[in-house]
């Protein structure tokens, strides 16, 4: 059975667990709390002292998107099919990689700032710079205006079928909806439809409130 070292409510741990559920692959979660990220034991697993880390027998991997791609490739015949195109589908690969790059370069950096400078500050009951809040909101609204235009023409970011590129958004979009300003997503017709289709998936419902180990079949 695969083992994931992570933290149940971490966005990156949820991203990996989400794909494991999509592919119907059982896994064991070993909880590594924030106080242990930089411990010598964990640094041996992940030299940057971050989570999650995957162990598949004697093979191990870190970085959540890399882990997700590995799971999808290794278990291509299980669960949800076609979460990434086959290598000989050149046009499909191009569109898929473009969609993944949108998530990683256009969306993720903004949400990382949002989490660090607004959401986590509020959870710690620390003051938030309102100018930063307003700037991040405006930037996210501008990004999702572009998403809305893309999704006007197709159901998902890489085309008409759900892919890893869409699923990678789920943990952070959930934070935007429930911890920041849901109108950023829900007030845009095509983004709202995309979000509903993603957030209603059984895989997300299984992990959204916290990742747990799954029984082996």
Molecular structure report:
With 217 residues, this protein is of the alpha+beta class. It is globular and about 45 Å long. It has a four-stranded mixed sheet with strand order 2-1-3-4, with helices on one face. The chain has ten helices and four strands, in the order βαβαββαααααααα. Helix 4 runs parallel beside helix 7 and helix 5 crosses helix 9. Keywords: Transferase. It catalyses: RX + glutathione = an S-substituted glutathione + a halide anion + H(+). This is glutathione transferase. One of its GO terms (molecular function) is glutathione binding.
Topology:
Blueprint: E1 2-6, H1 11-22, E2 27-31, H2 40-45, E3 53-56, E4 59-62, H3 64-74, H4 90-123, H5 130-153, H6 164-167, H7 170-181, H8 183-186, H9 189-199, H10 202-207
Parallel strand pairs: 1-2
Antiparallel strand pairs: 1-3, 3-4
Short synopsis of the structure:
By secondary structure, the chain is an alpha+beta fold. It has helices at residues 11-22, 40-45, 64-74, 90-123, 130-153, 164-167, 170-181, 183-186, 189-199, 202-207; strands at residues 2-6, 27-31, 53-56, 59-62. α1 links the parallel β1 (2-6) and β2.
List keywords for this structure.
single chain, Glutaredoxin, globular, alpha+beta, Glutathione_S-Trfase, EC 2.5.1.18, 217 residues, glutathione binding, 2 domains, Glutathione S-transferase Yfyf (Class Pi), Chain A, domain 2, transferase, 4-stranded mixed β-sheet, 10 helices
N/C terminus separation: 10 Å
Mean of residue pLDDT? 97
In this structure, how is the largest beta sheet organized? 4 strands, mixed
Number of domains: 2
Q: Write down the CATH topology of the largest domain.
A: Glutathione S-transferase Yfyf (Class Pi), Chain A, domain 2
